[in-house]
Design brief:
homodimer, Farnesyl Diphosphate Synthase, two-stranded antiparallel ribbon, globular
Amino acid sequence: MDAQAKPHERLAAALSEPLAEVDALIRARMASEHAPRIPEVSDHLIGAGGKRIRPMLTIAAARMNGYMGPYDVHLAATVEFIHTATLLHDDVVDESGQRRGRPTANLLWDNKSSVLVGDYLFARSFQLMVETGSMRVLDILANAAATIAEGEVLQLTAMSDLATSEETYLKIVRGKTAALFSAATEVGGVIAGARLDLVQALHRYGDALGIAFQMVDDLLDWQRGDETGKGFGDDFRERKMTLPIIRAVASAKGEEYTFWVQTIGRGKQGEGDLDRAYELLETHGALESTRRTALDWSDTAKEALSVLPQSDLRQMLMDLADYVVARIR
Amino acid sequence: MDAQAKPHERLAAALSEPLAEVDALIRARMASEHAPRIPEVSDHLIGAGGKRIRPMLTIAAARMNGYMGPYDVHLAATVEFIHTATLLHDDVVDESGQRRGRPTANLLWDNKSSVLVGDYLFARSFQLMVETGSMRVLDILANAAATIAEGEVLQLTAMSDLATSEETYLKIVRGKTAALFSAATEVGGVIAGARLDLVQALHRYGDALGIAFQMVDDLLDWQRGDETGKGFGDDFRERKMTLPIIRAVASAKGEEYTFWVQTIGRGKQGEGDLDRAYELLETHGALESTRRTALDWSDTAKEALSVLPQSDLRQMLMDLADYVVARIR
């Protein structure tokens, strides 16, 4: 493996065998004898070549604690199913046209299929967890599922609400990303029978990594010529209360505040407003302070891991925490 | 209690205390400190005064096997949450305008809220099951969730497909109704620690009751002046392959078959087609044979219960199996 390879590529190489088992299990459980529509829709997403970050987190967490299987593979498939189900339901609700550079499932098929196939994947993930026989695992994933759903609803109601606090923002971010990251790493530790303090450390790592990841996403929205497929200022156009905007609004007075009320609160955006928004973010250092907060969360993730015994896998997870924020350094 | 009262009313009276606990638990768990939209949406459905059939099935099944609580209440709330989540997702997918005589959640709010609040209720139901500490209960409900989702997808793809078999129809019906009915009664038996043969009998009862219930629903579609809110021939207009239509299509030849291809397969329905469809159902005895099949399932439900010790609750469940088909006798 090239030493210059990205940490998730090194993880994928180190865990290639169990990850192949995860893929096989996903394909086997996605199949529905009676309803061919199900693999059609979910294959579209699962086959789209996502990075499999969540399954890798679970397997790495289990194996760095000496687990020899087989249930880390089950749990890795579980988290990927939950993730995919969430994307399917997200496609419906956001009326978004693209995901991972392909048309979303609900344009190729319809809302019905996205909702119901998502439900099917949730149910399948639930069966996979039950097979592990671990009530603690079920408890962790049930709580993660509630946090995810609550965060999604909260995002819906906080949308274009200028009063959105950083506390609410964190809840939304946990729902979008961090709750499943932290559950993924935590169940890996639990299935390996790791000590409670190590399990908690794994949870904190996943949580902090997910939060950093999402804040970087907020920042990339304001990066020109970014290759991730997001356009400059998309979040602003969609009136999302991202962290940079929350902070710029918090610093805004008088005419500036009126500008945010107009563009985010009322959604009346005209020519020049996007540039003006960017200027205000710069003026108040909102991008710079968000960048620093993201780096802090990345550090928190690495610190959490420091209580675990040194290993190659641990190093890759540490590097992953650096990599997530590397693009904004 | 009036001896002439309907069986579900007698059940509600006999189980009024635990049912009040179920309602209290539902309200407590529906609450979301952070996302007030959640109780707003789900209250609309849960508060709409459904008959609480599923919670009653669970509690009756547990108590007729000597269970003294407290987890039958948890499980009753669980099945009601799953039911409500299913309705919410159904509202999105069917683009239906009315449910239980009120506007559906997705007209009052939007598709987003229906999908996400449904997901939240699923997650909450999952947490409730975990609290019972019973892996068998989790296994049963995970399988029920998969059957429900698969049945819903199957219904979507079988819609207006003239080749739909009675086997496929049964899978759809189990997904719509019977899988949750049978899980509701089965987990009641399991939580009470009932013998395996009794647990299986409870499962068969719920399954057969649910199937009978759905077949009656198919028949009521062809009843003029029915007060349930369905209009005469709604299923035909929506091109649903209900059992009477499946049977009439199976008997159709030549010009009759062409009629079904035209009206159900291609959805080209003109003046007089509804009357013609009804006439064909009558000609081939499709309504009468569906009626007989529904009565057979009602008998199957009662027979299943016969292995359980005689009790007032058992009698009410038997009467419920009669009541479900009483309107079509």
